[in-house]
Amino acid sequence: MHRNPSRPLSPHLTIWRWGPHMLVSILHRVTGSGLATIGAAALVWWLAAAASGPEAYGTFVSWATSWIGIVIGVGLSWAFFQHTLSGIRHLVMDIGAGFELSTNKFWANMTLVGSALLTALFWFVVLGVK
Ligand code: HEM
């Protein structure tokens, strides 16, 4: 491909100093894709099992309550909260707010803290921990 050598090159990824905003940006894509694939598959399985009768639903429940089902469930719930919080951050930035470096890093970190807290709260409620 022809390249005009007088034009500046975009800095390579490794040039940028790593920060929470980069992690949250990557996580937004990863969690969005995870919800749209694994999350959608789990939802379809749940609905199909519920529509197919007690035996199929029992199979689903035994998988969902096994350790692997719980690990996937915790992962999906965390992905949902992380994606939602970073999605709200995206929408705020889309109106032109929150670009100042320290503000930007602060809210990136807050999405990570918030998603961990919301996931823990969600599972405390689901498991009925008192
Ligand atoms: C289970 C529900 C959801 C699924 C499956 C989902 C999935 C996705 C996917 C696949 C993307 C594209 C990611 C990429 O390629 O960069 C995306 C982007 C986005 N999502 Fe979600 N999402 C969900 C819920 C939400 C919620 C609740 C919000 C909250 C406000 C949100 C806000 C956004 C925004 C703002 C973008 C665009 C980000 C950008 O400008 O690059 N999403 N979502």
Automatic annotation (TrEMBL):
This is Succinate dehydrogenase cytochrome b556 subunit. The chain crosses the membrane at residues 26-48, 60-81, 106-129. It comes from Sphingomonas parva. Heme binds at residue 83. Belongs to the cytochrome b560 family. Its cofactor is heme. The gene is sdhC. Membrane-anchoring subunit of succinate dehydrogenase (SDH). NCBIfam families: succ_dehyd_cytB. InterPro entries: SQR/QFR_C/D (IPR034804), Succ_DH_cyt_bsu_CS (IPR018495), Succ_DH_cytb556 (IPR014314), SuccDH_FuR_B_TM-su (IPR000701). One of its GO terms (cellular component) is membrane. Gene3D superfamilies: Fumarate reductase/succinate dehydrogenase, transmembrane subunit.
